[in-house]
Write a structure and sequence with these properties.
With 323 residues, the protein is an alpha+beta fold. It has ten helices and eleven strands. A hairpin with a 4-residue loop joins strand 3 and strand 4.
């Protein structure tokens, strides 16, 4: 797979990206061995957090078992592996390319991205954030839709910012530099379904509240999104989840998100600019855990107690001021 440098936002650092393009190759996993290598790497990081589907679920997607050409939103699963010059696995990205032909909207759901420790700060993460644009263009071409005649969105589910977990801010800094903006959680209170085999475990499903972030490809500087575009974040994710998660698990997530959107008046939703570095860390105020979690039922919020938003923001600013 070739990453078009024009698909990488300038904020990613052109020189670092150029070095990464020369250092790494990107390929799609096509067989069980390649998929297993990528899945094991992703599962080691995301599995303990409950933020990745079971192996058999994703393999079924890759094998095309969930393909439904008649569905209003068509979806295909892709796993991208990055390797260094010696063929070592350096990172992995998986995503779903979802296409609403009627709306002429392609939404790439960025599921998981991981750069292995030996290859961090190399520019590889920027390539993994940009590569899905090529997948979207390929899907549009296959559907007979010219890229210039369709809307392309990259969508990602991100953890709310936790002052006690620097990585939650670091990841959002990177997405901010990559042209992503956040849909206000009060407008679209989004949650990921519980991916565990809850029936086998005999437990009640517990959704995971997350922040919806989007990149409007070609309009990265635009500070708002259409109402339909904001709703498509939920619609396209749930179109994928509906093929693996019981309907009863998805309904409360959908109802809560749509209720938030229903309270918003207007056809364009103002987006939240994602801070791009420590100097802007105070801009995370509406994305803090203490600001996001109260939008959801107590059972969805996790075990950690919630602090007051103003105290949490002060702790976050102090933590980053200390370096």
């Amino acid at each position: 797979m070739i990453v078009d440098p024009r698909d990488v936002c300038p904020g990613e650092g052109p020189e670092k990206v150029a070095r990464a393009l020369a250092q790494f190759s990107l390929e799609e996993a096509q067989d069980d061995a390649a998929f297993d290598e990528g899945y094991r790497a992703l599962d080691a990081f995301f599995g303990p957090k409950g933020e990745i589907e079971r192996r058999e679920v994703l393999w079924a997607w890759l094998a095309g078992k969930h393909a439904d050409g008649a569905a209003p939103i068509a979806a295909t699963y892709h796993m991208i592996l990055a390797r260094d010059a010696d063929g070592r696995l350096a990172g992995a990205r998986d995503c779903f390319v979802t296409l609403d032909r009627a709306a002429r909207r392609c939404v790439v759901l960025l599921s998981h991205a991981l750069v292995l420790p030996d290859f961090r700060r190399s520019g590889l993460a920027a390539l993994l954030r940009a590569a899905p644009v090529a997948l979207a263009r390929r899907a549009l071409e296959a559907a007979g839709i010219a890229a210039g005649q369709a809307e392309i969105l990259l969508a990602a589910e991100m953890e709310p910012v936790d002052p006690d977990d620097r990585d939650t801010a670091v990841r959002l800094f990177a997405y901010g530099r990559a042209g992503f903006w956040a849909i206000p959680p009060a407008v679209l209170p989004y949650a990921q379904p519980d991916f565990r085999d809850t029936a086998a475990l005999g437990v009640t499903p517990v959704p995971v509240p997350l922040v919806a972030v989007v990149r409007q490809v070609g309009e990265e500087d635009r500070a708002d999104i259409s109402r339909a575009g904001a709703a498509s974040f939920l619609r396209h994710y749930q179109a994928v989840h509906a093929r693996e998660v019981p309907p009863g698990d998805l309904a409360p997530i959908r109802e809560r998100a749509l209720a938030g959107l229903a309270t918003f008046e207007g056809e364009r939703v103002p987006l939240l600019r994602i801070p791009r570095g420590p100097a802007e860390v105070a801009g995370f105020a509406p994305l803090l855990r203490s600001a996001v979690m109260p939008l959801f039922p107590p059972a969805w919020r996790g075990k950690a107690p919630l602090d007051a938003p103003e105290r949490e923001l002060a702790r976050l600013v102090a933590a980053w001021s200390a370096g």
